[in-house]
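Case study.
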Amino acid sequence: MAELIEPGTVWLVGAGPGDPDLLTRKAERLIMAADIVFHDALVGPGVLDLIPDTVERVSVGKRSGRHSKDQLSINDLIVAAALSGKRVVRLKGGDPSIFGRSAEEREACDAHGIPVQICPGITTASAAAASAGISLTLRGLARKLTFVTAHARAGEALDLDWDALADPQATLAIYMGRSVAQEISTRLQASGLPSSTPVLVVENASLSTERIVRTRLDLLALAIPPKSGGPTIMLV
Ligand code: SAH
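After joint prediction, the assembly is written out as follows.
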């Protein structure tokens, strides 16, 4: 039987939102079968605890505004490990295909002929909705679900199509928006969303430190936890 991870190959693995019980069984098996795991800062501590002591563990955490290895050096580390014949797991918070820069890591591997496979994970929006007991879509009311990142490159303004986002029939799952909550609130209202539009702010979704705030669009910025807090998602 073929090994779950062939030596010299890479798996991009979704770690889910943080709670280790929200890891897929496949992700857990991949972690067990790896020689080396490169992980993000957003991978939950309970998930990291599942990595066996015999598996090399490398943090390549990038949280905006904090220390980081830039994406190119992460790509280089992954490529070098695979070229040396290791079984490589690249563990990413949530789902690797959602704001995870997995395409860049895949391209770097492709350029060296390194096979890459992907194991999906539960994305934060799903976990946040579940914690709050809500549905991301609502028959007749929210027919569309938009995943959007409000992350701007350093020094650049947010470049989003606010008129398109301010769709009263859509749920917006806003990732990486904490520092620009006021701008999100102002712009969505300016584009026509009612000030009373319900917004859910979830910090540290699925972790024991989870914090859920139910608010409305015009009060959004007041609901954002202080900067020292954990990762935060907004559902509008
Ligand atoms: N691939 C990830 C998203 C990575 S982008 C996924 O599918 O969920 C990083 C952003 O995700 C953070 O800035 C934050 O907005 C959100 N995020 C990640 N984990 C989170 C958590 N446990 N609770 C709340 N937001 C989270």
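Observations recorded in class. Helices lie at 25-33, 45-48, 71-83, 102-111, 124-132, 162-165, 181-190. The pocket of S-adenosyl-L-homocysteine is lined by residues 17-18, 42, 92-95, 98-100, 123-124, 175-176, 202-207, 231-233 (CB under 6 Å). We will return to this complex in the next lecture.
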